[in-house]
Design a protein that fits this description.
Elements: H1 18-39, E1 48-54, E2 59-65
Antiparallel strand pairs: 1-2
Amino acid sequence: MRGAGLTAGPAAGDASGVGPALARAFRAVDSQVLRAARADGKDYGSTATVALCFTAQRTLYVAHVGDSRSVLARRAATAAQP
């Protein structure tokens, strides 16, 4: 959708501002989809999940809209430790 976008922080590799930018982009796209649905006389919406991982900052951003969800899983420790 035009008008929605994701912009990262001020410097390459800088994750500051990513969370708010991701939220703004999701809200903008969702609003555009809902407006288009109303204009067409339809009843539909949008669904999406996005995960952005910044390994250098050990930061994970997850956003979802509609009925989509994400699950964070970690590797379980083995039963027998050496």
